[in-house]
C-alpha cells in the first residue's frame, strides 16, 4: 500500500488518459474501511466453485482473501499501478498471483466473460457510479448470480438498489460499523443481491 494520500507519479500521462486526476491517483493504494468489510465478508462467504469478479479492487484485499481460500477470482481496476501492487501483495502473502484485468466501467470488455459473483467496496462514491456499476453487472453477471457491495454510507446505495431490482435481483441489506466510532444505527452497509435459481439462499455472511 502507499504510505500516504499524497503520493503521485504519472510521468507518461497514462493515468490522466484514463481519467485519473492527481487527487485520485493514490486512492487505490489504501486500505479503506469498506474494503476491510468486504474482505471480512469474503472470509466468511460460502464458496462453491463460483467464478468471482472484484470491481475497483485497489490493492486487492478481498481478492487476496479469496485467493487464499482457493476461489476462482478475477480482480479488476482501471488504475495503471493496480496490477503490480496486486502481484506484490500476493507475493508478500505467499500466494499465487491473482488473475487481473484492467477494466473501465464505461467501456465494454467482452473477453472478460461472465461471473457467478461480483463484489466491490466503496464504488458508489458519485451519483453516476450507480448506473455505471449497474451496466457492468448487466454485461458480466450470469442470469443466476450474486452481487455483494460494501458501502460506507455515501448516499447512493438506494439508487443502486433500485437499478438492481430492475435487473431482477432481490436485495438483503445489513447495517455495519465502518470504524470503532460508528455507533448504531451504523452508516455502513453490506448489500447482497441475488438473482435466479441456485444464486444462494439470500443470507448475508454472518
TrEMBL record:
Region named Disordered: 177-206
PANTHER family hit by this protein: HEPATOCELLULAR CARCINOMA-ASSOCIATED ANTIGEN (PTHR14614)
UniProt-listed GO biological process terms: methylation
Key words, A-Z: Methyltransferase, Transferase
Protein name according to UniProt: Methyltransferase small domain protein
Compositional bias (Gly residues): 197-206
Pfam families: Methyltransf_16
Gene3D superfamilies: Vaccinia Virus protein VP39 (3.40.50.150)
MF terms in GO: methyltransferase activity
InterPro entries tied to this protein: Methyltransf_16 (IPR019410), SAM-dependent_MTases_sf (IPR029063)
SUPFAM superfamilies to which the protein is assigned, alphabetical: S-adenosyl-L-methionine-dependent methyltransferases
Source taxonomy: Bacteria, Pseudomonadati, Pseudomonadota, Gammaproteobacteria, Lysobacterales
